[in-house]
Every structure is written in C-alpha cells, then in structure tokens.
Amino acid sequence: xxxxxxxxxxxxxxxxxxxxxxxxxxxxxxxxxxxxxxxxxxxxxxxxxxxxxxxxxxxxxxxxxxxxxxxxxxxxxxxxxxxxxxxxxxxxxxxxxxxxxxxxxxxxxxxxxxxxxxxxxxx
Length: 123
Prior knowledge:
The protein is mostly beta strands and 123 residues long. The chain has strands at 3-7, 10-13, 18-25, 33-39, 46-51, 58-60, 68-73, 78-83, 92-99, 110-113, 117-122. The protein contains no helices and eleven strands.
C-alpha cells in the first residue's frame, strides 16, 4: 500500500503564493505518475496538474497554466505544487494522487489519494 499526505495549505490573499507538498510512504513513487486535483464545496473534483514518473513531462489544466508548477523529488518520495498569482476561484481542497499511466486527467485513472489540504484565497 501507499499512503499520501498533503500539507502546505492555508489562507492567502489574492495574488499570493503557496507551496503544497505530498509526502508518500509505504511505497516509492518513482515509477508512478503523480497528480494534483482540487474540489470546491458542491462541485466535482477537477484535474489540476500531473507529472510523469520521469519528472520531465508535465501537463496542466488551462486555468492554472502559467501560475502553478508541479514537481517531484523521488529521493524524498514527495511531490510539490507551487502555486502563485492565486485567485479566489482557486479556493478548494487540494488532493494529490498516484496513477500508473501518463497523462492521467480523470479521477478514475488514479489508484491512491491523500486526504487533502485546504487552500483558501481571500478576495
């Protein structure tokens, strides 16, 4: 099994920045794609970004492209999401997840999920 734990969320002002971390345990993640999703209250979980097992190819949703950066440190078994120029519409619970394929943009393509971390952007 693999366990994923997100951290780094919080309350920020519009235009601010946050870096989310996803620490994995129980299994090394070097052979898997890792993605970030977010879910606002009453809305469906939506894709944010994914990074391949090689750490090179990445893919982003249009609404975060140019503002968010996904990265990974396989030696630390950790995935990151650097968020900048945050907007109120970025407010959501952010989840990291593991997939065996790349690119994967649908929740059903991911096998393991963290518990999420809350990001709130004030307007």
